[in-house]
Every structure is written in C-alpha cells, then in structure tokens.
Design a protein that fits this description.
With 74 residues, the protein is of the alpha+beta class. It is built from 3 helices and 2 strands. α1 links the parallel β1 and β2. It is elongated and about 55 Å long.
C-alpha cells in the first residue's frame, strides 16, 4: 500500500444489540416481489422472516395503485 495516501477512519463505540429472531432468509419489503420471495423460501423449507413497514402486504399494488390495477384484471 502506498504510504502517501491518507485513509480516514470513523471509530464507533461498541454497543449491545438485542437479537429477537434469527432466520436463514430475511425479506425486507412486503411488496409483490417480497411476498413471492418469502413464500418461495418458506416452501423450500428455509426459516424465513418477511419484514414490512406498513400494515398491509402488496406494496403499491394494494396500498396506492388499487384503482389502476383493478381494471386490468377484467
């Protein structure tokens, strides 16, 4: 390594973080793709967690674009 290059560093203090649940696969986001990924992982016997920040699954398909998507299913 070239010693003329100065590398900045940020030192963070150690802290204790609680572990509430462990899983092999964690899917972040319960949109259409997230739900499909979580279901596929679970069906293959993998310990799976699906995290969603809102109170519903489906992402914008159910939370924001319902009126746009519904006519497409006719």
């Amino acid at each position: 390594m070239d010693k003329s290059i100065s590398i900045k560093q940020i030192v963070e203090p150690a802290r204790i973080i609680n572990v509430y649940k462990e899983a092999d696969v964690v899917v972040v986001g319960g949109g259409v793709a997230g739900v499909a990924a979580a279901v596929a992982a679970a069906r293959n016997g993998v310990n799976t967690i699906l995290l969603e920040r809102y109170g519903h699954l489906g992402g914008l398909a159910t939370g924001g674009l319902v009126l746009v998507i519904m006519p497409m299913s006719d």
